[in-house]
Design brief:
The structure holds 2 protein chains of 2 kinds.
Chain A lengths: L5 H19 L22 E5 L3 E6 L3 H22 L7 E6 L2 H4 L16 E3 L4 E5 L4 H27 L10 H10 L6 H12 L16 H18 L3 H7 L7 H9 L3 H16 L9 H4 L1 E2 L5 E11 L4 E10 L4 E7 L8 E5 L17 E2 L4 E8 L2 E8 L4 E7 L3 E9 L5 E8 L4 E7 L4 E4 L7 E6 L5 E6 L11 E6 L5 E3 L7 E6 L3 E6 L6 E6 H4 L10 E3 L7 E6 L5 E8 L2 E8 L5 E3 L17 H4 L3 E2 L4 E13 L3 E12 L4 E9 L11 E9 L5 E15 L3 E17 L4 E16 L6 E15 L2 E3 L2 E17 L4 E16 L5 E13 L5 E3 L13 E3 L1 E21 L2 E20 L7 E12 L3 E11 L9 E6 L4
Chain B lengths: L1 H15 L17 E2 L11 E2 L9 E7 L9 E3 L2 E5 L5 E5 L5 E5 L10 E3 L2 E6 L5 E6 L4 E7 L8 E3 L2 E5 L4 E6 L5 E6 L9 E3 L2 E5 L4 E6 L5 E6 L4 E7 L2 E6 L3 E6 L5 E6 L9 E3 L2 E5 L4 E6 L5 E6 L9 E3 L2 E5 L4 E6 L5 E6 L9 E2 L4 E4 L4 E6 L7
Parallel strand pairs in B: 2-28
Antiparallel strand pairs in B: 1-8, 3-34, 4-5, 5-6, 6-7, 8-9, 9-10, 10-11, 12-13, 13-14, 14-15, 16-17, 17-18, 18-19, 20-21, 21-22, 22-23, 24-25, 25-26, 26-27, 28-29, 29-30, 30-31, 32-33, 33-34
The chains are: A alpha+beta, B mainly beta.
Chain lengths: 944, 380
């Protein structure tokens, strides 16, 4: 029953819009949402600004060295890209640097939570580039240049189209913008080669017309890079630049490509696919797929970094592997018997559901385990990373170690005697060094201390040395990672492997070191004999043997307890799995480069004249949005309003404005101004805001009918995130409210003060149509006091509990319990009913002050991919999900009436990540009879 | 009534435009005036040897246009012709910088304008894709021919206009009646204008090929395959000098097409070289202008302007002139590359400067047209 019809509806919308902008949407980023995870500003940064020739670099004092390096990289990248694009960006580019991914995750430049996989981003509204330092200078350069390609792309397209007075132009597809950003920010590398090669050899290559199916994925980035590389090599080195130069000539990207290359995208795709086959198929002659030459130990999801152990689980000593995996959307740590390809998998740690295990760093950090049944691993926990020790015998975490001056810790590894573990840690300055933790004393010490990127440490068999991977070698500035040995007694560091390769994840044995490396063009497993390890630095190192010859990739070698097999992470068919292979009997010796130049390198910093320009950051506001809307109603005349939002470069401060007028004649023009502003501060962990507003309009509700209401007041907002998953919101609203009612009802004039406090919890995991795992709670209490007579004007309690029980990768059972109650002189009634709440009943069918409602829903996959062909083309729907549901509830004012119920089925169609279409077929019941007809409801929105 | 009048005036203004239409006066028609190519001559030397230009960059006048330059400027007797992106070709007094009038090409005149006598030739780009000839005395279109997506710059050689199109067609049109005299189909696409020398047309092409075509009948004389997409060519006596986008400069024998020498510059090149006094002068994307001995390819001097150079260098008497994408305009000594003067202008410089030997004219991406010269030099 929709009571808001016709002209009144316009007013209602305007009122809702006004209130939404002034009161709700201007609240601190998180508390405006009923649910939602939190971005927590654990750290207070003392922001500085450095101005260089083309950039404004925003950084904090502790990372001043990293900022100076970033500035130099950015200026060099700028020059490279100016040449590539044949273009100069005339405005200084804001570049915001964070010294670690943990700090980067706190940025307010974008309001959303940043997934762990995001290495940096460019915000298009103000052209801001935000990049964290992960420790590797090569990666740092890659990410900065990648993001700058986006800046140049936007600037160039604007310039080209503006030059031809073309206001609207074709928007580049994501695969092209990301592909060219990859292609122009680094050389074609082993990872890209692995991804594309795997697709080609396994017959999974996604052609250009179908790239939207993997939109936004890492695979799309790599395929986009491959396509750009192909265009450059096949059509000519000028063509990528000319695609931008010709942008004004076409209405679609396909047209622009056709004009520039002479071929349309389908033809480019055909030639590119053929070229890839010509390139990769011959490799199968000498190389193998992991699955064909190894035993596959895991089968579903992503499974990585396995550690073989010999452990007695109470049924005798057996071989096991402890590994990390993302099997159902969350990352966890698992245990499984080594024997048998499909043995039982036990979950040890469930990650990403609580503040203790916010992130287990699936790919970035290794784990270790020993035969005593202890597992050591790192996790993000609130502001910093911590290291946990899990005891398999006790089935629980037994130790938690925090490191106050380290913002990130990675890849812990036990010493042979189990009294220590070594790990790589990142200081606030951003530099990555090695640390040893003494388990007996509970203290840790730093064993390397410099600007180089030291990672993947492991003890030598005698426990006297550390083997690790580092960029400190002569070619480290070009991206090389080589193996080094640190003597713990003397602190001496000796280089063990050489060359422009990435030698990583060493595993020490009595005879030598197993490691993975891309020294043969693909990541494979190698063995460095100890004789070489003990040779002197710079000596020709020629005793590396090749242990595997996989065509896609092999990583993280660990020797089994019988010393005859290697357990490793292999890549094949779009994913990582754990494999086991026998050690080759006669491994092939490979040639290593002869090293003559052992020069030391240091990352370059921007010139001192620019560093001296650094000044304290002063809030620098600019417009986010400024818009006006005008509408015309035949009866009520013109209606309209102006909305604006400004925020600072760092996104910590924002001001929102609203100005509308709801006058119906010129006599009440002045008194009908609706205005409001809210100031928000998200700089610290406690987010706060305040504002003031005046609203006057005609409103409607089912209880009072039509009435005019004038409201003027002030609002204050506070939101304190306890962790990523919990928060407490507090809102205070003090207002003058005058309600002029009709139909003989008395007017009401009050000064009211309302306080709301909410506790919100959310650790849900989302599928394309809504949550499928986790929990969500919202408990809200509110009380409104009349300041005229100090009476309790009204009070309310709202409880919303939602549980999602995972049944499979794409299926879940979801239930919801919602309780709402309000009482007092003028209780707050709420609308209920409709597709988003009580299905089978009209939208806003109920308007009451007591609501009791429960919903149960089975969510399951229906159709994974539906392609409907038309003569003019096809429509491709992906991820169609089905639901079976049963809702029950009651709504009443003073006296409980009865329960209502509904049940039915439906399906959800995802149109990308922004829109979900909901189709429900419902029957209602009063628990005596069932409605004779099936009600069909169509709506937009996610599942609850 | 008053309101109706205002509405009618507004409609008329929108219908016919409020700008002055340009008409060349019979009495001001010069005996012969040819601006055969945007690089000053049909050989694309980009070199002006006459006049008294002193190398100083004193601004004599500035004209603010409400549009950006769609193609290169043209000097026609006492008039500077500016092809704008808002479908207007503007005529400006080259001494005073005063607007004289405009014509409407009904499209963006992306080829720039070439002129012989009272006839102006230009091509408008997509979606119209037309080559037009306009009589400046009457303001009437004499002829028009379909031509797809021309590059900037067409050449007038005797009785014919040579122009190329993006789809790879090089065509000669009769100047008077617009009839196609010949067409030559190249492989791939053409985005660089042709040049002419010794009855041969040299057409650099995207597919790494330089074509030599007869002016007379459009027959291929030879073709030379080089290493990368070609971005410009200049002809001088028995040599044709070609630049590719990877920064290679080639000297070729114009009769046979054999490579005489090759020089690699460190940065990509997107501009044409200029030729003067036995040297080539070329700017690259690394912001360097290089003077190269035209006979052996040795580098004489370099000047680093840092910012991207996207417009071809010109030589006016003893000075090398060029602009950058950052909006800086430079005057260098031709002998040693030393800086004579530098000016920062409003807007990037994408179009090559033009000169009559006395003054230098530049159009920026912000629609500024600037005249440089010496204040004490008067041609009145």
């Amino acid at each position: 029953m929709n009571y808001l019809k016709g002209k009144k509806y316009h007013k209602f919308i305007l009122w809702v819009l006004s209130l939404a902008i002034v009161v709700v949407s201007v609240q601190t980023g998180k508390c405006q949402f009923y649910f939602g995870k939190n971005k927590v500003q654990y750290t207070h940064f003392d922001w500085q600004v450095m101005t260089t020739e083309h950039f404004k670099i925003y950084f904090y004092t502790k990372e001043s060295k990293v900022a100076a390096i970033a500035a130099k990289i950015a200026e060099n990248s700028y020059r490279t890209l100016a040449m590539r694009f044949n273009h100069e960006v005339t405005k200084k580019i804001p570049l915001i640097i964070y010294s670690s991914p943990s700090y980067f995750g706190q940025t307010n430049v974008t309001p959303g939570l940043l997934p762990e996989s995001v290495g940096g981003f460019t915000e298009f509204l103000k052209g801001r580039v935000v990049v964290p330092f992960h420790g590797s200078y090569q990666d740092f350069k890659h990410v900065i240049q990648h993001e700058l390609v986006h800046v140049f792309t936007l600037s160039k397209l604007d310039a080209v189209t503006e030059r031809r007075s073309r206001l609207r132009y074709a928007y580049p597809p994501l695969w092209f913008t990301e592909g060219i950003a990859e292609y122009w920010s680094k050389d074609w590398d082993t990872e890209a080669d692995m991804i594309v090669k795997d697709m080609v050899l396994n017959g999974n290559l996604v052609t250009i017309p179908h790239l939207y199916q993997i939109r936004g994925s890492y695979f799309m980035y790599k395929l986009g890079e491959s396509i750009c590389s192909f265009i450059n090599d096949y059509y000519g080195a000028d063509k990528l630049t000319k695609i931008f130069d010709n942008w004004y000539k076409g209405n679609t990207f396909d047209e622009i490509v056709k004009i520039t290359l002479g071929d349309n995208l389908s033809e480019v795709s055909r030639k590119w696919s053929y070229g890839l086959k010509k390139k990769y198929f011959p490799q199968m002659d000498s190389l193998d797929m992991p699955e064909m030459k190894s035993i596959k130990l895991t089968h579903s999801g992503y499974n990585v970094k396995a550690v073989p152990i010999k452990w007695d689980d109470g049924h005798g000593e057996k071989d096991w592997i402890v590994f990390k995996a993302n099997r159902m959307g969350y990352t966890g740590i698992y245990l499984k018997p080594l024997e048998g390809s499909k043995g039982e998998i036990k979950t040890l740690v469930k990650g990403e559901r609580s503040a203790d295990f916010e992130s287990l760093y699936l790919l970035r950090s290794g784990i270790d385990a020993n035969d005593s049944g202890l597992v050591v691993f790192s996790s993000k926990s609130k502001e910093h990373d911590v290291i946990y020790i899990y005891d398999l015998n006790q089935h629980q975490v037994i130790k938690r170690y925090e490191f106050n001056n380290l913002v990130a810790v990675r890849s812990p590894r036990f010493s042979p005697d189990g009294t220590e573990f070594i790990f790589s840690g990142v200081k606030e300055s951003g530099f990555t060094d090695l640390y040893v933790f003494d388990l007996l004393k509970g203290t840790y010490r730093q064993v390397t201390d410099d600007i180089y990127y030291d990672t993947d440490p492991c003890y030598t068999v005698d426990g006297q040395g550390i083997i690790f991977s580092s960029d400190r070698g002569p070619k480290g500035d070009a991206g090389a990672l080589n193996l080094f040995k640190l003597d713990l007694a003397t602190g001496n560091i000796r280089q063990l492997t050489y060359g422009l390769y990435r030698d990583q994840t060493p595993e020490c044995t009595e005879k030598g070191i197993y490691f993975s490396s891309d020294r043969m063009g693909t990541f494979n497993l190698f063995f460095l004999a100890l004789a070489t390890a003990s040779s002197s630095e710079g000596e020709d190192n020629n005793t590396i043997t090749c242990q595997s010859t996989y065509v896609t990739g092999a990583f993280n070698p660990r020797l089994s307890s019988d010393k005859k097999k290697l357990v490793y992470t292999g890549y094949e068919n779009w994913g990582f799995q754990i494999y086991m292979m026998k050690l080759p009997e006669k491994p092939e010796k490979i040639k290593s480069p002869i090293v003559t130049n052992l020069r030391k390198w240091k990352p370059q910093m921007i010139a001192a004249k620019y560093r001296k320009t650094s000044i304290k950051y002063d809030t620098d506001y600019s417009f986010d949005i400024a818009q006006s809307s005008i509408g015309y109603d035949p009866v009520y005349g013109s209606i309209g309003g102006f909305q604006a939002a400004v925020s600072d470069v760092l996104g910590n401060h924002a001001i929102y404005f609203l100005l509308t007028n709801t006058a119906e004649s010129k006599d009440n023009f002045l008194e009908s101004f609706n205005f409001g502003f809210t100031i928000i501060n998200k700089e610290n962990r406690l987010n706060w805001g305040f504002g003031a507003y005046h609203l006057y309009d005609e409103y409607y509700n089912d209880y009072d009918g039509y009435y005019y209401e004038r409201q003027a007041g002030v609002i204050s907002l506070f939101s304190y995130p306890v962790s990523k998953f919990h928060r407490i919101d507090f809102t205070t609203l003090t207002r003058y409210s005058k309600r002029e009612r009709r139909y003989g009802l008395p007017d009401r004039e009050k000064v009211l003060m309302t306080n709301y406090v909410s506790w919100v919890y959310d650790n849900s995991l989302w599928d394309i149509s809504g949550p499928i795992d986790g929990r969500r709670y919202n408990l809200t209490l509110g009380i409104t006091t009349s300041l005229n007579d100090m009476n309790n004007f009204n009070r309310l309690i709202s409880v919303d509990v939602r549980h999602y029980f995972r049944l499979g990768r794409y299926s879940a059972f979801a239930n919801r319990l919602f309780v709402y109650s309000s009482s007092g002189i003028e209780p707050q009634r709420i609308y209920f009913g409709g597709s988003w709440s009580f299905r089978g009943y009209d939208r806003r069918a109920f308007y009451n002050r007591h609501i009791l409602f429960a919903s149960n829903e089975l969510r399951f996959p229906l159709i994974d991919n539906l392609l409907i062909g038309f003569p003019f083309g096809g429509l491709d729907f992906r991820g169609i999900r089905g639901v079976l549901f049963y809702d029950t509830g009651a709504a009443w004012d003073d006296y409980f009436d009865r329960f209502y119920g509904s049940f039915g089925t439906g399906f959800r169609v995802s149109l990308g990540y922004l829109v979900v279409l909901r189709f429900d077929f419902t029957r209602t019941t009063d628990y005596k009879t069932i409605s004779p007809h099936t009600d069909f409801d169509f709506f937009f929105g996610w599942n609850f | 009534m008053k309101n109706k009048s205002i509405i009618i005036i507004i409609i008329l203004m929108f219908s016919f435009g409020c700008s002055t239409k340009y008409r060349l006066q019979h009495e001001k028609l010069p005996d012969e005036n040819v601006w055969p190519f945007y690089r000053n001559d049909s050989s694309s030397t980009g070199s002006v040897t006459k006049g008294h230009f002193s190398g100083r960059l004193s601004i004599l006048w500035e004209y603010k246009s409400n549009d950006k330059p769609a193609g290169p400027l043209t000097i026609y007797d006492n008039t500077l012709i500016y092809p704008g992106t808002r479908n207007k070709i503007k005529f400006i007094d080259k001494y005073l910088g005063q607007f004289q009038g405009c014509i409407k090409p009904r499209g963006i005149p992306q080829s720039g304008v070439t002129i012989k006598d009272s006839l102006a030739y230009f091509a408008v780009g997509p979606p119209k894709n037309l080559l037009k000839c306009i009589n400046l005395l009457k303001g009437k279109v004499i002829w028009k021919e379909p031509l797809k997506d021309v590059s900037w710059g067409s050449i007038i050689i005797k009785d014919r206009l040579i122009i190329n199109s993006g789809e790879g067609l090089l065509t000669a049109f009769n100047l008077i009646n617009g009839k196609r005299i010949w067409s030559f189909k190249t492989e791939g696409r053409l985005s660089v204008p042709p040049t002419c020398g010794d009855s041969k047309i040299f057409q650099p092409a995207d597919k790494n090929i330089l074509y030599a075509v007869s002016v007379v009948d459009g027959k291929e004389i030879y073709r030379v395959s080089l290493d990368n997409p070609l971005v410009g060519a200049v002809v001088y006596n028995d040599f044709v000098f070609v630049a590719d986008m990877e920064g290679n400069i080639y000297s070729l024998d114009s009769d046979s097409g054999s490579v005489v020498w090759k020089r690699k510059l460190p940065y990509p090149v997107w501009t044409s070289p200029a030729f003067a006094k036995g040297c080539l002068y070329i700017g690259d994307n690394g912001g360097e202008v290089v003077a190269i001995n035209a006979y052996d390819g040795t580098i004489i001097w370099r000047y680093n302007a840092v910012d991207v150079i996207n417009s071809s260098v010109v030589v006016v008497r003893e000075y090398v002139l060029f602009g950058t994408m950052a909006g800086d305009f430079y005057s260098l000594n031709i002998s040693d590359g030393s800086l004579v003067e530098k000016r920062h202008l409003k807007g990037a410089l994408i179009q090559s400067p033009v000169s009559d030997g006395e003054r230098v004219y530049v159009a920026t991406e912000k629609g500024m047209i600037i005249c440089f010269g010496d204040e004490d030099v008067s041609n009145y």
